[in-house]
Amino acid sequence: RDAVHGGWFARPTAEDGNTRKDAYLHAFVALAASSAAVAGRGGSAELLGDTVAILEGHFWSGSEGALLESFARDWSDCEAYRGANSNMHGVEAFLALADVLDEDLWLDRALSIAEKLVHQHAAQSGYLPVEHFDSQWQPLPDYNRDNPADGFRPFGKTPGHAFEWARLLLHLEAARKQRGLAAPEWLLEDARRLFASACQFGWNVDGGCGIVYTVDWNHQPLVRERLHWTLAEASAAAAALLQRSGEHEYEVWYQQFWDYIDLYMIDRQNGSWHHELGIDNLPSQNIWPGKPDLYHAYQATLLPRLPLAISLASALKLRR
After folding, report:
1. In this structure, is residue 1 part of a structural domain?
2. What three-state secondary structure class fits 152?
3. Structural domain boundaries enclosing 59
4. In the annotation, is 161 catalytic?
């Protein structure tokens, strides 16, 4: 935490000298703060208030209807880049904030982001989300062409994010309906299309089993490692679509994804899940070392049992 200028760093600054402040990170701080508030943890109210102040004071752009990407430590030097990944997790955080703070404003902001990135840009790009934009929200198709396997900003398109967006659209629809707000019909329709495109272009597309990390602009496999979070999000999206529609095809997909997870992803020797598998479905560390981001896998085991509306933390509290 930056005691001078406010906000949070990704890691202690002495480790790598990076003092930039990212929307992606602050979305997760908001998730943590909202969950802590639901759990009644000491200091959570202050943390939640500080997080909201930072989001509203620096990252949220009312004129753009989305989150700005990053700043220097003193909140100068706004990055001339707009990212779908950070805004997707912004939607996730805003859903939790709307629930915990009991404020419709956050659902309106989440809808604004979803409309821009999914209903506009992804709809024009085969329902695989465009990931990288300039400051005017024009796509950057060559972004990181020379670094296609970047862990946060890879070149091309990321099928796993189409699954994740599909699930978030359904949560947003349910949350808005629960609060008596308008829920556009395209939320469900776009969720279906995102899921279908991710299955078509991401699942079992390179001669092997699994979801490839990225595809190129022609939707051909590019970075072929299988990351655990893509399977977690695919299974969670299938469960959400099954709950929303009752259609059997999503149950079939859900079972297929979990069959793969059970066979390849779960690390029965050391525990947890393998974070990354190679094209041979053996453990790999070409993109990420270790086992980060386990929350994806943990959520995948919880979400199918919970309602689409209200935050994950609130839903779990009600089940106690």
Report:
1. no
2. coil
3. 13-318
4. yes
CATH of the domain at 126: 1.50.10.10
Condensed to tens digits (0 to 9), the pLDDT of residues 46-95 reads 999 999 999 999 999 999 999 999 999 999 999 999 999 999 999 999 99
In-domain check, residue 45: yes
HSE-up of 211 (CA within 13 Å, CB side)?
31
Q: How many domains does the chain have?
A: 1
> Of these residues, 58, 161, 219, 275, which one is catalytic?
161
Q: Report pTM.
A: 0.97
Our measurement of the distance from residue 92's CA atom to the centroid of its chain's CA atoms, rounded to an integer in Å, reads: 7
Q: Which long-range contacts (CB under 8 A, 24 or more apart) does 28-34 make?
A: 28/89, 28/93, 30/55, 30/93, 30/94, 30/96, 30/97, 31/92, 31/93, 31/96, 34/93, 34/96, 34/97, 34/99, 34/100, 34/101, 34/311, 34/313
Question: Which residue do the tokens 């949220």 mark?
Answer: 60
Task: Give, rounded to a whole angstrom, the gap between the first and last alpha carbons of the chain.
Answer: 32
Report residue 150 CA to chain centroid gap.
Answer: 16
- Residue 274 among the catalytic residues: no
| Planar angle of CA 83, 229, 265, nearest 5 degrees | 160
Which of 189, 137, 187, 196 minimizes the C-alpha distance to 162?
A: 196
Q: Tell me: the pLDDT tens digits for 9-30? A: 988 764 667 889 999 999 999 9
**Closest listed residue to residue 97, CA positions, set 68, 105, 170:** 105
Q: For residue 8, tell me if it sits in a domain.
A: no
Instruction: Flag whether 105 is in a domain.
Output: yes
